Every structure is written in C-alpha cells, then in structure tokens.
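Entry, Tuesday afternoon. Goal for today is a structural model of the target with thiamine diphosphate bound, before we commit to ordering more compound. Inputs were pasted exactly as handed over by J.K., no edits. I checked the ligand SMILES twice against the vendor sheet because last time a stereocentre got dropped in transcription.
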Amino acid sequence: MVAISELQEMYTDMVTARHYEERLQEEYLEGKQPAFDISAGPIPGELHLAAGQEAAAVGVCQHLRDDDTVTAPHRPHHVAIAKGVDLKRMTAEIFGRESGLCRGKGGHMHLFDPDVNFACSGIIAEGCPPAAGAGLAAQKRNSDSVAVAYLGEGAIDQGGFFESLNFAAVHDLPVVFVIEDNDWAISMPKERVTDVDDGSQRAAGFDMPGVRVDHDDAVAVYEAAERAVGRARDRNGPTLMEIQVHRRMGHFMGDPQTYRPEDDQTAATERDSIDRLEADLRARGVEDTTIKNLRDAAEDRVEEAIEWAKDQPEPDPETAHEDMFANPPSGVTDTDPEFDLMGGDD
Amino acid sequence: MSEQQEVVERELTMSRGMVEAIAHEMRANDEVFYMGEDVADYGGIFDSTEGLLDEFGHDRIMDVPISETAYLGAAVGAAQEGMRPIAELMFVDFFGVAMDQIYNQMAKNTYMSGGSVSVPMVLTTAVGGTYNDAAQHSQTLYGTFAHLPGMKVVVPSTAYDAKGLMHNAIRDDDPVVYMFHKRLMGIGWMPAPDGPKTPVPETDYTIPFGSADVKREGADVTIVTLGLHVHRALDAADSLAEDGIDAEVVDLRTLVPLDRETILESVRKTGTLVVVDEDYRSYGVTGEVVATVTDEALAHLDAVERVAMPDIPIPYARPLETETQPQAADIEAAVERTQ
Ligand SMILES: Cc1ncc(C[n+]2csc(CCOP(=O)(O)OP(=O)(O)O)c2C)c(N)n1
C-alpha cells in the first residue's frame, strides 16, 4: 500500500500543477483582451496547459530521483513540477525573463533543468530518443538511474517513438515510455488517427511489457509505475505505459475547440483526479485541516513563483547572441551582432 | 501590384486567396486532394484549409496521424500515380522528422528516373516568427528548401500572389513547396499588417514561377526580399522617402526558380543592393542574391548590405526575438549605410 506521506506528496504536486495552469491561463489571457492576439500580453507565444493530466505526472515521477532523466513534450508543466524542476525559474522562463531556466531563450516548450535532469521539446515524440540515450548512459556507466519519456497519445504514430521502443527493447535499456492519453491531438480524436484503442498494445511488437491505466487515478498510476520504474532500475529493460487523462482546456490557449463535442468537454472536467486523491486521503484518515494546509501551501508556492518571475528583468537583447556553442569558436563569427560581411560598417 | 490589370474591388486575406485557389482546383479536378494535421474540422491551424471540409468532405480534406514521414511520403506516391495531392506540414520546422521523404524522394525522383517519373504535388507549410514561438516553431528555412535541388519554392506575400501562385503550384507537374507566412495569413488571433490583404479577382489566374514583382518602384536603392519582409521593406521605403531616399522593393515570390533578371535590372538602375531575409544569414538567400549580382552586374554595384537572422536558433523572449529578427528599422539603417 502507498504510504500516506507519499499520497500527500502526490496530492501537493497535483494541486500545485493545477493551480499553476489555472494561474498561467489568467496571466496569459491578460493583455490578450478584448481581441486575442497571440503575441500580446505578459506571456507571449503558444501556451499548452495540462490541467486534467496531473495524475500521470505525479504517479510516475513519485518513483524518480533527481538523477533520473525525464523528457516531456510540448505540454510539460505538470511533469516538470512532479520532477522537481525549479518552479520560480521555470515560471520566469515562461514569462521570458533573464533569470528563467534558459535565460529567456527556450520558452514554455523548451525548458531545461539539468539539476533534476528534465528537458522538453516541441517536436512530437522527439523526447523518446534522448530518453533512450539517457538510459543508455546509465547502463554504460553501471548506475541504477532510469529515464522516462512522456508523450501524448497523438505522438505514438510518429516514427521516432517506434524506433526508440525498438532501440530500448533490444538493448534492455532502463527506460519507461509514458503515453498520456487525453483523447485528442489538437482537433483530431484518437479514433480518426489509429485503429488501436489501447496504445500500450504497441509494446507487444517490441517484446516489452505494455500496461494501460484506464482512469486517471493517481494511486493506480503510482502502482503501475512502481513496477515499470522498478523493472528499469533492476535492469530488466523498458516498459510502455499508457494512462488515461483528460484535457480540461483547449489544445493551446486561444483554441476555440469548435471541433470538440460539448459533452466531451464537460466529461473531461467532471472527472477530477485531484478530488479522487483527496477522497483517498480522507479515507486513509487524513484530516480536513491537513488537506487544506497542503492545498494552501501549494497555492502559495505558485503565487510566489509567479510574483517572483514577474519581478525579474527581461533579458538584455545582446544576450541573444550568447550561448550558441559550449566552446565558442575564436574570432568573429556570424552569431556576433557586429559581424559585417563587407568588412566593417561603412 | 503591376500584374493587376483589371480593377477589382473585392479584397481578401492571404489565407482566403490561397483557399480560393485550392477550392477552384479541387472543383475542376477530382485528383486534387489535401491532407495534413488538423486540416479538416479545424480548418488548418493557420486557416490554410478554412471552409474546405464543408464543400469537399473528409475524403478529400483528410486529417492524418502525426506521421509526417508516412503522409508526406504517401503524397509522393500518390503524385507518382498521377494524382495531385496537396500535403501540409503544419510548421516548416517539423521538416526534420520527414526530410527523407521530402528530399530523397519528392525532390529527386524526377531526375533519378531520367524524367520517366514526375511528382506533381504541393507541400504547403507555415513559416516565420514575430509571435515568440521560439526555436522550433518560428523558422522560415527558405534557404534550406531552395538549396536542395528538385523542389520549386514559392513564398507569397499578398492575397493576390497567394492565389495566383497556388493555382500555378497545383497545375505544375513538379513538387512545389508553398511556404506561407503565418503573420500574413490574416488569422483572427495573429493580426496581419495592412499589406497582404489585397484585391483578388474571382476568376482563376496563374502567376508564373520565376517572376519577381516590383512592389515599389524607386531609383536609389534596390531592396530584394520575400514573404513578411516585403511589407517591412515597404514600411522602411516609406520612411526612407521622407529622407529623400527612393527605394525599389523587389518581391522574389519564388526562390526556385529565381528571377535573377528582375534583380539585375533593378540593380543596374539603382547601383545599390540591400537583401532582406527572415532566414539565417549564412549559406542562404541573401548570399545567393548578392552572388547573382556580383556575378552578373558587379560593375554596376556601388554598395551592398544584407539584413537577415543571425546564425542562431530563434530565441523566445520578446526582446531577444526582436533583436534577432530583421525589423523595418534595421532595413532603413542598412539602406542608410549604403548611401
Ligand atoms: C513532428 C510534429 N508534428 C506536428 C506537430 C504539431 N503538434 C503539436 S502538438 C500536436 C498534437 C499532439 O497531440 P498529443 O501527442 O496527443 O498531445 P496533446 O497535445 O494532446 O497533449 C501537434 C500535431 C509537432 N509539434 N511536431
């Protein structure tokens, strides 16, 4: 049975992630009124929020250590929070600030926190090969760390996913592939793009275990992930997991969702994995005041991170030209703003 | 817009111009169909297929799995069977996951087959930055596609051009990469500048590939550019005019084939060349245009400048993206340096 302390940690992360997404939504939409303009407001660019997907993040990451690697896709915040990414610096990155995780260069789809071995990418399924690579490094170095690649159910039709499954399987790599099935890939429902309802069945073709967790129950995810992560840590090879989650919001902020039946949208908000875990905590005898304290602390932490981030300065434009190489080539290069092909100004 | 002979009242956004040509060709030819991610019920993330599902249904406006290698390669195969597929790569930045089908099949099969096979398909794709979508969603990659032989490369900057170039693209017997700039489409949530919305005739018409368009005539300096930066160059030209500098703005419209003659003619007249590109500076469009002029008209060339993205991935934060992307003020400054 899961220890109560672990349940409380997962609950805290879930509440943090949910509150984070709801607050980012508010911040994002501010300055995009009355007419929505993607480039306006305090958070520019695209924003993919993960409200409704928290169980998949916490149930797996609860088993991970800082030295385990996680790669996430374009919808990364809940996973980042569960993995222990620095919340303040992540928020500053999303607000495009100098003290952000990536000095304002990456943005919300390209967050890197090497302190906890977290990275994400906006190209579909492209976190799978690097996760396999992290597993390969662990194997070669004889360490017992593992790697987890997160991806959406829409991403499992991408070549990079299949190639990574095979690569990880044939080399017995300590990797767990986690599919978050929220039923939608932007406007495309799962049944329009695949004939296989259960994505974890893809594992069979690579002779690795595949498990599906049919409801976004954090405890069920925790238990399934315990076996998958344990298998990887014990050097018994990779596992493919699929977890049913729910997309409570649009694909990206500003998505009109006109393609989505209304009852599907309501169904996604009716089932709430946070309420479910809260009920579990109560059933295990956790007091209401304890739950309230956990919730308040989580929300305070989010508010603090957002406030801190907004106070940070924007990056100096000149810094755009830095960080291109770990070993910058000597002499003037074309990444230099002063570089002039014609041999100097005038 | 020199080619608009008839007076047309009706103005369209660039996306409407593009979609109108696609609809026209689909009505005229059952072999034309469109596939891509979110092109059916959504109507294309950037409105590239808005409204087409209602008229043509899911059979001809096909949503596809997120499997670019499979569906772009399938478009190549269907084209080789003689159909005329249009396949959309949602953002050009995603080309990496499917480049083999694009480059080693689509682009090469005609030549490798000694001309016995042709690939009459259109690859549509959204390009460009200006809205802080960062390194994996903001590139134009004009130079990459133009550099690799075997693809015709089209970059419209107005609704009129978008429609005429799309008609030509679908009727062309070769693979055409049709790169539309997100900021020009006239999407509700990404306001376009004023320029791309133009009068567009209701009838079909084609704009031949390899015909650059002089969007503004001028005597003092030639600004060669494409896509979004046609409009930034026109803005720059307006303010340069206030300082008494008369700039000519040449819109390339297609990179392959490249209308070298129009560039040369303009530079022979002005003696000064400024090339503006939203793609990376090195090994790209700006270098090619400058080399064209130095090869053929060096004696006429008094000064030359390039304005392009530096050779770095496109950063996210607003001040960083603005710093790297050529602005109208950067174009003005470059022109002033040549005077
Ligand atoms: C190679 C590639 N193709 C297409 C896209 C555009 N795109 C971004 S998110 C997305 C849908 C992803 O759906 P899913 O994997 O189910 O994740 P979800 O968005 O539902 O979390 C698509 C098509 C991309 N980023 N990369």
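Residues 93 and 106 of chain A are 7 Å apart (CA to CA).
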